[in-house]
């Protein structure tokens, strides 16, 4: 059954819906599917849920459109997540450094618990420390997944599958088509995040973004190893603690990329070393950081793009910048195209103020599969469109849509194309999702 394996692989049974990856997309997919009656298994490689939202970052972007006329474009399960965070402590709404809209900054440790509560209260099963190793496919239908776990290899059957792994691991092992980041356009760079404690916020506020970038340029001329010189820092719910998005590492070199375990290992190590250099720069050169110290590094390196699956539709740059509306859309995004590169820096291209592009359901349906969906940063889009819609609020919205469709498809054997879009739309609207630009009152 599993290639060259010469022994029987213990089974975890079969589930209606198996969701691979518990980031913003995967956790929301599991919650949605379970709330709609499916028997769900959520698989995660880390020891906690949340993926990038808990292991790398501390801010949800994409809930609102940028600009003076900020419009809320994401609702439903994502609102439940923020409500859960507010019940545990302070949540800070703050402007993005580059005008990308209001961010919702939280404590990642709280979010780990919020994800666990929402997923388990919905009735989904969770398996941590689990990696997909292979996929059994017959005639385009995923029948089972082979997992590597602490207890050894395990297999699990599925009626429908949501690939929310970020790296499209399920689609890769299943042999479904995808574009590898870097093949057609330069892949976005990687970032190791870190936090500094004992920062004087008043002194730090005395200098502008442009001043910080000038100090980075000057420090680089003086010998500091700072490959990115337009990074950002921001306040957190804890007084005196500041989080950063500053470091920059290439995600592909000489044909290798971050889906290669050896390359990823080198990047993780290099990212932590680079973070120490940025921390040294901050304490030496930036007002407010004189008595500060680095006290936390991201659990893993931040990855912006790897594999992007070929779906029934691919969202394009033109779709985004024209704020195109689709007849089968299941999410909205007003975030600008945010493209990070070593040579050209970070490039921003904005949608017309107050508008949002729709995310079509077809971009979540895997082109080569019968019963598989994607959600999160491996969804079907070109490089430029992906650089806008990969924001975590949009990943949550895509996850809710994918999980909902997966649950609705179970009675029909998991055939996701057999569920009429109006049924998906009405279910999402009933659950608080926002599907039409301007449907929510202006803040």
UniProtKB/TrEMBL annotation:
InterPro entries xref list: FAD/NAD-bd_sf, HdrA-like
Protein keywords: 4Fe-4S, Iron, Iron-sulfur, Metal-binding, Oxidoreductase
Key word Endoplasmic reticulum present: no
Gene3D superfamilies (alphabetical): FAD/NAD(P)-binding domain
EC number annotated for this UniProt entry: 1.-.-.-
Alphabetized GO MF terms: oxidoreductase activity
SUPFAM superfamilies, per the entry: FAD/NAD(P)-binding domain (SSF51905)
Keyword Cell division: no
Enzyme class: oxidoreductase
Protein name as it appears in the record: FAD-dependent oxidoreductase
Biological source species: Nonomuraea marmarensis
Top-level taxonomy: Bacteria, Bacillati, Actinomycetota, Actinomycetes, Streptosporangiales
């Amino acid at each position: 059954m599993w290639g060259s394996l010469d022994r029987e692989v213990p089974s975890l049974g079969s589930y209606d819906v198996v969701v691979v990856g518990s980031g913003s997309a995967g956790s929301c997919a599991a919650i949605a599917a379970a709330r709609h009656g499916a028997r769900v298994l959520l698989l995660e490689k880390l020891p906690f849920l949340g993926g990038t939202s808990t292991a790398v970052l501390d801010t949800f972007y994409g809930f609102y459109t940028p600009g003076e006329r900020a419009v809320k474009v994401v609702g439903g399960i994502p609102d439940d997540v923020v409500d859960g965070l507010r019940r545990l402590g302070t949540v800070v709404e703050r402007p993005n450094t580059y005008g990308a809209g209001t961010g919702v900054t939280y404590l990642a440790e709280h979010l780990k618990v919020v994800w666990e509560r929402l997923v388990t209260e919905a009735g989904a099963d969770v398996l941590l420390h689990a990696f997909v190793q292979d996929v059994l496919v017959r005639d385009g239908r995923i029948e089972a997944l082979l997992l590597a776990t602490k207890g050894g290899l395990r297999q699990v059957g599925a009626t429908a599958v949501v690939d929310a792994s970020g790296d499209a691991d399920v689609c890769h092992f299943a042999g479904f088509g995808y574009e590898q980041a870097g093949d057609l356009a330069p892949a976005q760079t990687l970032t190791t995040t870190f936090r500094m404690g004992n920062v004087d916020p008043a002194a730090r506020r005395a200098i502008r973004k442009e001043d910080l970038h000038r100090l980075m340029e000057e420090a680089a001329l003086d010998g500091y190893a700072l490959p990115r010189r337009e990074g950002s820092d921001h306040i957190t719910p804890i007084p005196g603690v500041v989080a950063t998005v500053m470091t920059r590492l290439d995600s592909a070199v000489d044909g290798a990329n971050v889906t290669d375990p050896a390359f990823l290992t080198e990047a993780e190590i290099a990212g932590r070393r680079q973070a120490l250099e940025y921390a040294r720069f901050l304490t030496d050169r930036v007002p407010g950081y004189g008595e500060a110290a680095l006290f936390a590094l991201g659990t893993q390196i931040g990855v912006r793009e790897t594999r992007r699956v070929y779906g029934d539709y691919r969202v394009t740059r033109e779709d985004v910048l024209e704020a195109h509306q689709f007849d089968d859309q299941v999410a909205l995004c007003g975030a600008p195209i945010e493209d990070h590169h070593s040579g050209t820096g970070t490039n921003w291209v904005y949608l017309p103020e107050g508008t949002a592009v729709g995310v079509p359901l077809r971009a979540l349906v895997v082109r080569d599969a019968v019963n598989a969906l994607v959600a999160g940063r491996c969804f079907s889009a070109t490089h430029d469109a992906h650089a806008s819609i990969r924001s975590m609020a949009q990943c949550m919205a895509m996850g809710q849509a994918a999980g909902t469709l997966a649950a609705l498809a179970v009675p029909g054997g998991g055939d996701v194309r057999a569920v009429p879009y109006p049924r998906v739309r009405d279910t999402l609207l009933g659950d608080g999702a926002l599907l039409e630009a301007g449907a929510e009152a202006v803040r």
